[in-house]
Prior knowledge:
5 helices, alpha/beta
Amino acid sequence: xxxxxxxxxxxxxxxxxxxxxxxxxxxxxxxxxxxxxxxxxxxxxxxxxxxxxxxxxxxxxxxxxxxxxxxxxxxxxxxxxxxxxxxxxxxxxxxxxxxxxxxxxxxxxxxxxxxxxxxxxxxxxxxxxxxxxxxxxx
Length: 138
């Protein structure tokens, strides 16, 4: 619980993000009060990009960091628009998540505390974003 509180206090809302890509996601989906939501923020993010960028369900991958290595994830990101990594702040997964943040093969990482998002966007500089979201909605 203390880790979650620390994340919430140090994370940004849509303001403080220096990426139009991440800002737009936060503004148009995460903090938009005028949309209907599913039970899962992961599902909502997938739906958003399927609508906005005409992505398919096959363009997304949801993984646990329990049984996979950083090198395996680096290879997988070549085949997916976005990879969602569950429980990035639990146990050994936290070390893998930190290693990915330092690894130059991973360009855009978004830390939502409960899960992380990888998006290989070669058109922007490498950066990790810590975002908080309205937990009461999920």
